[in-house]
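Work Package 3 (structural annotation) set out to generate three-dimensional models for the target panel prioritized at the project kickoff. During this period the team completed the workflow that converts sequence records into discrete structure tokens, so that structures can be stored uniformly alongside our sequence database. As a representative example, we reproduce one entry of 182 residues exactly as it appears in the project archive.
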Amino acid sequence: MSASAPYPEFWVRKMRSVFVMFDHDLDGVVKKNDFVDFCIARAKCLLKQEQIDTFKDQINNAWDYFWAGPEKRVNVTLRDCIYNHARTFREPTFQEEQRKWLYVYFDTVADKNGHGYITRKEYEEFLGLFGVHPLSVPPSFEALDTDGDGQISKEEFVNAAVGFFCCTADTPAKLFMGPFLA
């Protein structure tokens, strides 16, 4: 997809939903602290100190790489958010960076008990880090549990996340971050 081509509407809806998750004051701008500080404050209620420390690094890196983009913005508009996440279509390494980040995140934060999979409760806490209401978890969990074994494996987690951010089609991965907000 070229930089001048319009982005697929379904993909834009997903990015708009993620943007709205963090535009808490509804001013049309997500500031770095709207994203980072909010997630870290939530982590303090849901994670152990060692996980919080790892999560702080991860969420700061996520802001710097995925949200702020090469321009290193501290304030991101919806247009900026869409453009920066659309690098998945323009930069061959962008999707691989997502995968690396997600594997580390799975191992150190999401899989809280270290068993190699995420339970429904762990997924609820994962979504809770981003402010998603617990009642939104069951349909998301079921959509990501592609083999129906009652847990989300590392591969299911990473594939769903990459699918959420990179896939332009309407797939079950659309529920990775919970239901659409916008």
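The CA atoms of residues 55 and 109 lie 7 Å apart.
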